[in-house]
């Protein structure tokens, strides 16, 4: 049963059966190995019930693979609520989930998106070498960041 | 106006990827309409050569919405390969599997009603496309949305408690289950401290059925007539009593007026069914051999189940079934949009069944696995949320799968969905000077009533932009719209 242990939840989005699409999950695996004090959730895609889940937290970080090339190989940026939902599917973006959390529960958690660049998305298990390198960089950056007293998500997590 | 062809691709707010082609003649009259299932199918083939015990784990990967159904249908078949028929499974294992199954149907029905169907019902078929989605439902009907979220969550938590995770977890093993329920797990669903408890689920399920009845009363003309056509109805029923049965029973089919067409042991299905193919779809068309391709097809799913059963063995759902049946004077209900109503009665039934099992101390017992004499053939049939689901496996003497046949609910409903598309196309599109987006949405609504899982039916992955294509009779594109 889910016990809400921490004030920050990190949601890894993706599918490790699709090569670099598994970056979000791999990131959570690293946190698990290091036993960092966050609640973790693995998702193939975000759905509306995740709005209820994140309403229980002060902070949320969405970690996902991205196809756009990034100089550092990763990017951590604020996630702001937006009702930019897709017409045709019930899979929702982090911004939309945040918007629904705000609408339904009148709560607006501090949210960020960690995008990690991947290049291969075919039906195969295993990250590409570029994605693996970007994952290591992103994770090092994240660990350095949470150790910093200036990092907003480190407050009381 | 020249002959032309309208294409809706893909159909939206269904699971998977399909497209609809509507052929108009030179006067703009609908000549014909087809639902094409264009995903590729491969599971039956690539499971060959794998050990039989992998089937319940592998085959559930067909789907992210109803993996539990595939897991359990495969498990029932694999039980037979280790010599265990459904009646020989330990009562504890049976109860745990049933609890998992009811949790799955409960969450799947909640997903369909709140996320996929309710935008059409709440905002109307001609509401702007950008409004017909779950986010608009959530923002404009907050209390309904909150309940929908928590009802789906309850079912998913049941699945997680039993199978380890919400999607693609594992409970069943050959001849039983690998885990029992712990007292603290049971308390989680009963005490209401962390999530609303099972009594609240029953109460909310009843509220949603009441909502549907009110909605029907206000919109009876449309709901009763939309995509209405006669059909046979097929489902499992209880072996002795004929009651609604979701996990294990006999296969019963009735015609549109209630005459019984078939009542057989489930494992005899292959002697009674054939599958036809059409060049324009990867999805097959199952039918009862005895009645032929034209007359032997069935609807499956909630509407069919409420039609074929003699009663429901939980009190609140049975009371609702009686009201539902009274509307058609006890004759089978052939009104496609009443599938939503039937689905909600089943949701209430599953909530009642979950309560019965959660209060049963057997679910914390330890007689979990049994073994018998191995065989080379196993057939597992259950009622998945969308209808009758059939798994059949053959193995060699080393236990490697040599043959697999899957007939999923959406495949049974293939002919029914095509009839629905044709019926609505002729009703709303014929001889209209302009084809509007709400008209196209009505075609999709006829399909959506079946809650089809096209990924299950053909087993594919893919992205789903929507392409609406207008072609002349030679296939030349004269108009195209894309939405994503």
TrEMBL record, chain A:
One function term, GO molecular function aspect: peptidase activity
The keyword Metal-binding belongs to this UniProt entry's keyword annotation: no
The protein's name: Hydrogenase maturation protease
Gene3D superfamilies found in the cross-reference section: HybD-like
Single Gene Ontology BP annotation: proteolysis
NCBIfam families: hydrog_prot
Keywords: Hydrolase, Protease
Any coiled-coil regions, as ranges: none
PANTHER family reported in the protein's UniProt record: HYDROGENASE 1 MATURATION PROTEASE, SLR1876 PROTEIN
Automatic annotation (TrEMBL), chain B:
PROSITE patterns: NI_HGENASE_L_1 (PS00507), NI_HGENASE_L_2 (PS00508)
Cofactor(s) of this protein: Ni(2+)
UniProt keyword annotation of Lipid biosynthesis present: no
UniProt keyword annotations, A-Z: Metal-binding, Nickel, Oxidoreductase
Pfam families (alphabetical): NiFeSe_Hases
Alphabetized InterPro entries for the sequence: Ni-dep_hyd_lsu, Ni-dep_hyd_lsu_Ni_BS, NiFe-Hase_large
Family per record: Belongs to the [NiFe]/[NiFeSe] hydrogenase large subunit family.
Name of the protein described by the UniProt record: Ni/Fe hydrogenase subunit alpha
């Amino acid at each position: 049963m889910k016990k809400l242990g921490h004030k920050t939840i990190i949601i890894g989005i993706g599918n490790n059966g699709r090569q670099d699409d598994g970056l979000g999950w791999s990131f959570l695996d690293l946190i698990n190995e290091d036993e960092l004090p966050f609640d973790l959730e693995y998702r193939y895609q975000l759905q509306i019930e995740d709005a209820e889940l994140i309403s229980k937290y002060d902070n949320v970080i969405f970690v996902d693979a991205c196809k756009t090339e990034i100089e550092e190989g990763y990017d951590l940026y604020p996630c702001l609520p937006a009702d930019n939902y897709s017409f045709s599917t019930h899979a929702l973006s982090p911004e939309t989930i945040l918007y629904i959390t705000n609408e339904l529960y009148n709560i607006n958690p501090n949210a960020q998106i960690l995008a990690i660049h991947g290049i291969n998305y075919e039906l195969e298990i295993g990250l590409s070498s570029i994605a693996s390198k970007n994952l290591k960089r992103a994770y090092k950056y994240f660990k350095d960041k949470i150790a910093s007293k200036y990092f907003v998500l480190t407050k009381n997590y | 106006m020249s002959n032309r062809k309208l294409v809706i691709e893909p159909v939206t707010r269904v699971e998977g990827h399909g497209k609809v082609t509507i052929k108009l003649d030179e006067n703009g009259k609908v000549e014909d309409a087809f639902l094409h299932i264009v995903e590729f199918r491969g599971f039956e083939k690539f499971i060959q050569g794998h050990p039989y015990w992998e089937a319940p784990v592998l085959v559930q990967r067909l789907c992210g919405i109803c993996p539990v159904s595939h897991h359990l249908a495969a498990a029932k078949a694999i039980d037979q390969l280790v010599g265990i028929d459904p009646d020989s499974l330990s009562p504890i294992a049976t109860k745990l599997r049933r609890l998992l199954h009811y949790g799955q149907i409960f969450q799947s029905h909640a997903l369909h009603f709140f996320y996929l169907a309710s935008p059409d019902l709440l905002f109307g078929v001609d509401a702007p496309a950008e409004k017909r989605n779950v986010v608009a439902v959530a923002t404009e009907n907050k209390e309904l949305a909150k309940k929908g979220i928590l009802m789906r969550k309850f079912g998913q938590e049941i699945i997680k408690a039993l199978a380890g995770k919400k999607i693609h977890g594992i409970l069943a093993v050959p001849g039983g289950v690998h885990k029992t329920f712990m007292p603290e797990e049971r308390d989680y669903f009963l005490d209401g401290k962390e999530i609303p408890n099972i009594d609240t689920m029953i109460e909310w399920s009843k509220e949603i059925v009441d909502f549907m009845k009110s909605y029907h009363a206000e919109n009876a003309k449309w709901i009763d007539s939309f995509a209405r056509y006669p059909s046979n109805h097929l489902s499992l029923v209880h072996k002795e009593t004929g009651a609604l049965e979701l996990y294990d029973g006999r296969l019963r089919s009735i015609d549109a007026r209630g005459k019984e067409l078939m009542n057989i042991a489930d494992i005899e299905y292959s002697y009674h069914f054939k599958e036809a193919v059409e060049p324009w779809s990867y999805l097959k068309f199952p039918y009862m051999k005895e009645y032929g391709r034209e007359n032997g097809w069935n609807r499956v799913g909630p509407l069919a189940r409420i039609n074929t059963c003699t009663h429901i063995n939980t009190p609140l759902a049975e009371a609702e079934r009686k009201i539902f049946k009274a509307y058609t004077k006890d004759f089978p209900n052939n009104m496609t949009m009443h599938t939503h109503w039937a689905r909600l009665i089943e949701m209430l039934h599953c909530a009642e069944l979950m309560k019965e099992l959660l209060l049963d101390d057997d679910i914390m017992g330890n007689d979990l696995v049994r073994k018998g004499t191995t065989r080379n053939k196993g057939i597992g049939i259950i009622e998945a949320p969308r209808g009758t689901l059939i798994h059949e496996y053959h193995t060699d003497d080393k236990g490697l799968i040599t043959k697999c046949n899957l007939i999923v609910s959406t495949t049974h409903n293939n002919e029914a969905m095509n009839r629905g598309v044709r019926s609505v196309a002729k009703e709303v599109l014929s001889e209209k000077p302009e084809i509007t987006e709400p008209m196209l949405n009505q075609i999709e609504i006829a399909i959506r009533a079946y809650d089809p899982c096209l990924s299950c039916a053909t087993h594919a992955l893919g992205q789903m932009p929507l392409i609406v294509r207008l072609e002349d009779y030679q296939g030349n594109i004269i108009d195209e719209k894309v939405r994503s």
